[in-house]
Write the structure tokens for this entry.
Amino acid sequence: MNILITGGAGYIGTELIYRLAEISEVENIIVYDNLSRSNFNLFIGHKPVAGKVQFVHGEILDSRRLRKALKNIDVVFHLAAKVTTPFANTDGHIYEQTNHWGTAELTYALEESNIKKLIFLSTTGVYGNTKQLANESTLPEPDSFYSISKLRAEQHVKRLSEKINTLIIRLGNVYGYSKSMRFDAVINRFMFDAHFTNRITINGSGNQHRSFIHIDKTTEVLARLIQKEIPDGTYNLTDKTLSILDIAEVMKNIYPELESFFINQNYTGPNLEVERHSALINYVNLPESNLEDELLIFKGKFTFYSA
């Protein structure tokens, strides 16, 4: 099995490659990435991927290079995206270009290819500000440039379902250690600040909820998708729904002297809660886990404490 991963050098892509390389049926993995985040951690170290992984330095809007990279590919993971948490409502043009039209360019290339499966990472953010738990039947109401661009991208992916097995995975907020860290995601940022400054900053009341999933669970489920027969469709992938205050409370167990500073306390912020037991769990198991245990492991990945 030959796999191409757009955005493969990123936060999720790096860990997904390590997981896919462990699967005996996977022969080749092509990382297609423009390295726009200047993240080169995938390319160093001693993980057992030698002989399976190749790199193509390319833009998602470069149709010629995309078509060339897709030769002899069986499965495509489309992870390439512009993500700038918490600034998902600034510079709408870049979200449209990368997330919307970049996905469109990929689907045009896939229409001319012989791939068997496309797995597209979208976001639970397409549900917008929820008043009750969202599931796959909830009508999307995206409320940021980022989520709007992702929903538009989904429409292009759906066009391929008559020819290709297409899975749209609406992913919750991902957290946890990776070689290719993202410290703009809320839990990851809190961990960094708590570890090195012993304080975290909460924007708003802290009662706003989000749906989260650990990166190890994310990549484990994604890797299993290539080994399962799953009907075309849109599936949520999330694990825990937590308020910002919930996260802060768990972190105080790990860092007992932690201080929380509030800004804009009258700001309630958007609320996004998603059911854990999505239709995807009918095909792939999602094991239980404890947030505190996960963050203790994360804590152990820091190389030193601040004075």
Summary: The longest strand covers residues 117-123. Residues 209 and 242 are 5 Å apart (CA to CA). The chain has a mean pLDDT of 93. The two ends are 49 Å apart (CA to CA).
